[in-house]
Design brief:
The protein is of the alpha+beta class. Helices cover 21% and strands 39% of the residues.
């Protein structure tokens, strides 16, 4: 690894951190190399490259935590930070000798093509390919933003319980955002790709494919009708990603919120909190996914944690601090944005497990409702589970067929109530990536869900009426009533939208 300190040095620093007592102390040393490329207005506007190095030292005594960080990773620099932290969390606990033992990585997250072995010109080329393709699709495309980023993060973690971890995390991401306009109507489309992968990210999807999806979504929304409002059945396609499970459910299952009385799931372990068809899992061991990790940011091995099993609440997500309060082991969910932040319980790859039903049959068996193909932003109150989400791409279902696209739809409901209303779960599974914000820090995550039907949900829109109302259709939308187009929607092969 990058740092030159030996184990005996780290042991001495931990001794300093525990010099005034304490229940636990750890050291987190980080070197993070980042690259970012941004294209706007048809040219490269941003080309950033840099390295950040630093360390954080934490001391826990009872319910008190002291945290100090520094960008001086010499022995002297860390010893000074340890001394500062030691005064912040004192206890009468007798110090014990520390013998660091290296932990072995539980999962293989090696990449095929390291980003630092790829010339910057190759990365710029991919960005320009996406920009060029997006702009030539249709003259209604007025603005295109393309972003590429990669990070190589090397960490060393040591703690007073004898854990010693050396790890390297590599992540890459690629995003395209398109703005289309027709007269005074302006709509946007967004598509992202990312994971714990190197430059082989483009073997999964070419830059042009990402650009095509973003532009198609923006153009489709130009032709879409205003969404109706009312309470109706909602089918969430796998392609929509797991925004629902992440926001409306996942945060409420983080142990710190539960212990603070800020979670609707507090005190409900062992109770039925969702439909028997719903199993919720947080799994940091899924190779290649954006939230995957060998070890969390406390040196605990990445794990697969079943949180809700067949509707029954089984467990919460813990870091070391919250786990000690419940007299149990960490679940490997202690995460931090950087050495400047102390770890807190966070999600990794969170998903609703796939069922065994044909996704197309779920739609065919839905007489009226809304099909959500892509989720937008939203917010949730973890205390009571209430949420509101935007729908980036949605369609009205009529008599079991995808009838026409709608724009401006929102979903409003309560997380636990919605999970109880799931009555169909498909055999597919679709992932989305994101940066999850909490306590002022962001970490990379992914979320996923199968195609599933919610029997009733409040849909907000600007079109008035309800989903059963007869409405005239633009010619561009009439073809979406065919079964072949339904297959295209579910299999992510949306027809290209052109000016008619």
């Amino acid at each position: 690894m990058f740092q030159s300190l030996e184990k005996k040095d780290l042991q001495e620093i931990l001794d300093v951190a525990m010099s005034h007592g304490g229940d636990f102390a750890d050291i987190y040393i980080e070197k993070k190399a980042l690259n970012g490329i941004g294209c706007e207005d048809n040219k490269i506007e941003r080309l950033n490259s840099g390295t950040d190095v630093g360390a954080g030292i934490r001391v826990i005594a009872g319910d008190s935590t002291a945290y100090a960080y520094t960008n001086d990773v010499s022995f002297e620099g860390l010893a000074h930070a340890a001394k500062v932290a030691s005064h912040g969390a004192r206890s009468e606990k007798v110090r014990q000798s520390i013998d660091l033992t290296k932990a072995l990585a539980p999962v293989d997250l090696s990449v095929q093509l390291r980003p630092d072995e790829v010339a910057i010109e190759k990365k710029v080329e991919k960005v320009l390919e996406a920009n060029k393709h997006a702009r030539k699709i249709d003259d209604r495309v007025k603005q295109v933003t393309v972003g590429y980023g990669d990070v190589i993060q090397q960490v060393t973690i040591a703690n007073s319980e004898g854990v010693y971890v050396e790890d390297e995390r590599i992540r890459s991401r690629f995003i395209v955002h398109a703005v289309a306009a027709d007269g005074t109507l302006i709509q946007t489309g967004y598509e992202a790709l990312g994971g714990t992968v190197g430059f082989e990210i483009f073997e999964e999807q070419a830059p042009e494919e990402i650009a095509q999806k973003a532009v198609d979504r923006a153009l489709l929304m130009l032709q879409a009708k205003p969404a109706p409002s009312g309470t109706m059945a909602v089918v969430m396609a796998a392609e929509a990603g797991g925004t629902m499970v992440h926001e409306a459910c996942g945060h409420g299952l983080e142990a710190d919120l539960v212990q603070k009385g800020l979670s609707v799931y507090g005190g409900k372990k062992g109770q039925q909190v969702a439909s028997p068809l719903v199993t919720v899992i947080d799994d940091g061991t899924i190779k290649g996914k954006y939230g995957a990790l060998r070890f969390d940011d406390e040196g605990t091995r990445g794990q697969r944690n079943v949180l809700i099993e067949k509707g029954e609440l089984r467990d919460f997500m813990y870091d070391r601090f919250t786990a000690s309060k419940d007299n149990r082991e960490s679940t490997g969910n202690g995460r931090r944005e950087s050495y400047q932040h102390k770890p807190v319980p966070r999600m990794t790859n969170t998903l609703i497990a796939a069922g065994d039903e044909d996704p197309e049959k779920i739609i065919k068996d839905t007489k009226q409702g809304l099909l959500v193909m892509k989720m937008g932003g939203g917010q949730v109150n973890t205390t009571n589970g209430d949420f509101v989400f935007d729908v980036a791409e949605g369609y009205i279902i009529e008599d079991g067929e995808v009838a026409y696209a709608v724009r401006g739809a929102t979903l409003t409901g309560n997380g636990p109530e919605v999970l109880r209303k799931v009555d169909r779960v498909g055999s597919d599974l679709g992932y989305a990536i994101g940066t999850c914000g909490k306590d002022g820090q962001g970490v990379p995550v992914s979320d996923a869900q199968p195609t599933m039907r919610i029997t009733s949900l409040i849909v907000g829109g600007t079109g008035g009426g309800d989903a059963t109302e007869e409405q005239s259709e633009p010619e561009a939308n009439k073809k979406s009533k065919s079964t072949s187009h339904l297959q295209e929607l579910l299999h992510n092969k949306r027809p290209q939208i052109r000016r008619l």
